[in-house]
Amino acid sequence: MKPGRLRDILLGSTTVAVFVLLYLPILLVFVLSFFSMRRGRINWQSFSVDWYVRLFENEALGAALYKSLVVGLLAVAGATVFATLVALYVNSARASRLSKSIEYVIYLPFLLPPIITGLSLLIMFRELDVPRGLFTITVGHAVFVLAIVYRIILTRLKALSGTLVEAAHDLGASRLQTFRYIILPNLRTPLLTAGLLAFALSFDETMITLFLTGAEATLPVRLYAMMRVGFTPEINALVTLVLGFSIVLTIVVALTWRNTTGLEGHSSRSSGQ
Amino acid sequence: MRGSVAGLALWAVAVLLILGPLASFLVYGFFSVEANDIVYELTLANFADIAANSSYLTTFFRTLRLAFEVAATNLVLGYAVAYFIWLRSRLWQSILIVGLAIPLLMSYIIKIYAMRGILGTNGLLNRALIMLGVTDEPLTVLLFNLTAVRTTLVVVLLPFMVLPIFVALERISDTILSAAKDLGARESHIFFRVVLPLSLPGALVGAMFTFVLATGDFLAPELVGGIQGFTYGRLVFSQFGLAYNWPLGAAMSIILMIVALVVISVALRVGNPRYLK
After folding, report:
1. How many CB pairs under 8 A join A and B?
2. Which of A138, A151, A212, B12 has the fewest beta carbons under 10 Å from its own?
3. B246 touches A at CB < 8 Å
C-alpha cells in the first residue's frame, strides 16, 4: 500500500502545482479588477467597482468587443454551413475517394501554425486586391475554425444509423425531406456544440487576425496593441466579465458534448430533444 | 452526377480559401523585393540569404530548442496530471477536466499579460521570493528573456497536453488492467508494462502539437521576451511589419511549415502504432 500512497502524494502535489500555475494569472486579473495595486502590493482596503464603470465608458474597447462578436458570429455561421455540406458530402456513398480527400484540406489551417494560415490568406488577399478589414478577418476565422466544426458534425453523422435514412427513402421522402426531417434534427446538438466551440476559438484568435487586420481591430488585437504601450486597469474588469461568460459557455458546451458523444446507445432519445 | 457537381462546388471553395492561399504563400517564398516592390520572378535568393545569415540560423535553432524544452516539460507535467486525474472517481475526473478547460477559454493575450504581472520586478513571484528570504532584491532575470518565454509557453500550452493524454488513458480497457492484476502483476509493473506503453503514443502526439504551436508562436515572445527573447516567429512576423520583406517572410515560413509537417506526420505515425490498431 505504501508505494501507492507515495505515488498519490507526488502526483497530487504536481497536479496542485499545475492548477496553481494555470489559475494564478486568472486570479491576479480577477483580484486586480476590484482592488488597486501600489508598489507591487495589492491594497486590500481599496475595493471598488470603478473599473467596471469605466469599462462601460471606454468606447474603443466597446467597439473592439462589438467587432469581435460580429466577426465571430459571421465566421461561425459561414464555417458551420460549409463544414456541414462537406460532412454530408464525405459521408455520402456517392463521393469518390479522391474527392473525399477534401477533408484533409479542411484540417490544414487548424494543424499548421497560425502564422502560416494568416500569412497565406494575407498574401492571397493582397494578390486579389481585397483590402484588409472585417471581411478578411472573418474569412480567416471561418477557415481556422472549419476543422473543429467539421470534425464534430462528421462524428455525429457517422454515428447516425444508415437505416434511418434508408427508411425515410423507402417511405417516399425526397432527399430534401430526409435532410430536413431526419438528418437536421439529429444534428442539432452537435451543431450547437460546434458553433459554441468555434465561437470561443474565433473570439480569442489573435495570431491569424494580426495578419489580416486593417484599421479595424477585434478585441484581442486591440488588447495586444494596448499592452505594448501599457494597460489601463479596466482591462482587468473586461477580462473578468469575458471569463465569467466563457465559464458559462464551457459548462453549456460540456453538457451538450456529453449528449453528443454518448449517442450510439440511445440515439433515438437524444434525437427527440 | 449531382454528387460530382456538389463535390466540385465544395472543392472550389476549399481551393479558393485554403489551397490557393497556401500555394500563393509557397510561391511568394521564391519571389524577391526591390525598392519596396515585389519582383515576381522565381529565385532561391531568400533561402540563400537565410542559410548565409548566422543570426537567422541562431534564432531558428534557438527557437527549435525552446519549443523542444516546452514540449518536454509539458509532457512530464501533463502526464503526471493526466495520470492523477485518471485515477480519480468519475465525478472528480469531470471536475478536474473542466478545471483544465477553463483556462483555455481565457484570452491568450490576457494570460500573457498576467504572466508579466507574475514574473515582473514588482511581480507576485518576486514578492514571494523576498518574503521567503530567497533573495533581498527583486530579481530582474525573471522577465524579458527566453526563460520568461519558456515559462509562459509552458503555462499557456499545458492544458493542450493534459487532455490528449487523459483521452489516451481513458481508452485503456478495464479488462486489460484487471487481467494484469489477476495474473499477479504489481502496481508499478502494471504501470510500466501496460499503462505507459498504451498511453505514451497519445502523449507524444500531444507533445508534438505543443512543439509545433511553440515554434510558430510570436505573441508570447513579443510580449514577455524582450530583446533577449527573440524567436523565429517574431523574425517572420517582423518581415510583415517594419522590415517589410514579404517574400523573405514567406521563405522563412516555408521552413517553419516543413518543420511542422514533418513533426505532424511523425506524430500521426507514432500516435497510431500497430499494437494499438
Report:
1. 211
2. B12
3. yes
Enumerate the residues of chain B whose CB falls inside 8 A of the CB of residue A15: 80-81, 84-85, 96
Could you tell me if residue B87 is inside a domain? Answer: yes
b vs e for A230-248, b when ≥16 Cβ sit within 10 Å of the residue's Cβ?
A: ebebbbbbbbbebbeebee
Residue contact A250–B105, C-beta within 8 A: yes
Going from the N-terminus, what domains does chain A have, and what CATH number goes with each? 59-271 (1.10.3720.10)
**Which pLDDT does position B103 carry in this prediction?**
83
Residue B69: what pLDDT? Answer: 96
Q: Is residue B14 part of a domain?
A: no
pLDDT the model gives residue B2: 56
> Chain B: residue nearest A242 by CA?
B106
pLDDT digits (tens, 9 = 90+) for B133-190: 888 877 877 788 888 999 999 999 998 899 889 988 998 888 988 898 899 888 888 8
Whole-Å CA distances, B135 to A229, B124, B126, B127: 30, 14, 8, 10
Contact B240 A86 (CB under 8 A): no
- Domain enclosing residue B170, as ranges: 43-276
Do A220 and B108 count as a contact with CB atoms less than 8 A apart?
yes
**Residue B164: Cβ within 10 Å count:** 21
> Cβ contact (<8 Å) for A112 and B110?
no
Which residues of chain B neighbour A78 with C-beta distances below 8 Å? Answer: none
Mean pLDDT of B13-41: 90
Q: Is residue B82 part of a domain?
A: yes
Chain B, window 170-209: residues with a beta carbon less than 8 angstroms from a chain A beta carbon: 187-188
CB atoms within 10 A of CB B8: 10
SS3 annotation, chain A = CHHHHHHHHHHHHHHHHHHHHHHHHHHHHHHHCCCEEECCEEECCCCCCHHHHHHHHCHHHHHHHHHHHHHHHHHHHHHHHHHHHHHHHHHCCCCCHHHHCHHHHHHHHHHCCHHHHHHHHHHHHHHCCCCCCHHHHHHHHHHHHHHHHHHHHHHHHHHCCHHHHHHHHHCCCCHHHHHHHHHHHHHHHHHHHHHHHHHHHHHHCCHHHHHHCCCCCCHHHHHHHHHHHCCCCHHHHHHHHHHHHHHHHHHHHHHHHHHHHCCHHHHHHHHCC
ipTM above 0.90, yes or no: no
Q: Which CATH number belongs to the domain containing residue B63 in this structure? A: 1.10.3720.10
Q: Count how many domains chain B has.
A: 1
- Answer yes or no: is pLDDT of A266 > 60: no
B231 belongs to a structural domain:
yes
